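[job 0412] stage=complex_fold ligand=nicotinamide-adenine-dinucleotide status=START
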Amino acid sequence: MHSKDLSRRIFIKDIGLAGLSIPLLPLHCDNPGQKISNMKDNKNKLGIALVGLGNYATGQLAPALQETEHCYLAGIVTGTPSKAINWKEKYNIPEKNIYSYENYDSIKDNPDIDIIYVVLPNAMHAAYSIRAAKAGKHVICEKPMAVSTQECDEMLAACKAAGKTLSIGYRLHFDPYHLEIKRLGQQKVLGEISKINSSFSFVAPKGIWRLDKRLSGGGPLMDLGIYCLQAVCYTTGQVPVAVTAQSPPVTDTDKFKGVEETLDWQMEMPGGLIAKCRTSYSENSNQFRAETTKGWFEVQPAFGYSGLQGRTSAGKIEYPRLSQQARQLDGMAQSIKNNQPSIVPGEMGRRDVIIISAIYEAMKSGKRVEIKY
Ligand code: NAD
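[job 0412] stage=complex_fold status=DONE, emitting structure tokens
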């Protein structure tokens, strides 16, 4: 427990507001003209530094960190000085909490930063997560955890050696629609699952790092297909024993040089269920559907940040709009504060990288590949 947490807890208890979710005034406010995010009292919150200020960090994580109750945007790590200026201004980030990739390791001396969130291209996840652990910080790393199982092992070892937690940015474990299909599937509410079909695809523009295998580690499977793979695992409560995969002929050989364009794969689950999945960078799709012995359930659209729609043979699944990322960040921060294990730990990220590697092996060999974890 940090001393700042303790003082804040006592403060809340003493004034009897523990049950209220109203924003409280800060204990110290040196500058009454401060911007909104710093006007909130961050004393009981864990400080997060985002590494890599691209689309996801800018469009989703930073806004979500303005809503969170257990963590806040304390710092940034960026290679682009103009971004540092804009973010400093927009989120009132103190100069001392702004790092470049060069001086990143000195973040170890900064007590404002409790958690480092790596939001870089996939092939950079391992190096920046390991440096975060060596700096003595908890780590959140975006999906896919890394581009090889060996990298995953190194990340897990670094976090273990540092005594810090490692979570993967699997936001859908905090989304009510996905928690509901997990419940329906695992508790067999509509009977046993007999079939699963899932796909997630979008049309990728030319020239992005996602099409460069050195940075992405792979194509849409690493980026989008991983959501289908995950949903199969959490709705069944199982991991596949074997996979098969087929990649149709590439339609744009100029664009898809190093990574697959489209991939169909099948996951053989322990009871014999075959889950059928598809991902592509040349079409649009976004759905999950399970047939069960007593009906069916589905989410479509399934994997976006909002606008999810759920249906079952017994009726609609409906929840109010919320920020998946705010729930994810708060959930992760709470588990750290309470010394509880992450619900999306590095081990789960490693498991998925093993499944992805097996799918690629099956795609290349045309054979059924058994998976050893
Ligand atoms: P992006 O291209 O928008 O941002 C990447 C960031 O990395 C940029 O700030 C870029 O400047 C920086 N960078 C540093 N070195 C780089 C290099 N050598 N090449 C390219 N960029 C470099 O990507 P993004 O969509 O924000 O994705 C970042 C990570 O977040 C990926 O791992 C992705 O899978 C993940 N992501 C997760 C979700 C989710 O819903 N959980 C959504 C989108 C992206």
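The chain has eleven helices and 15 strands.
[job 0412] exit 0
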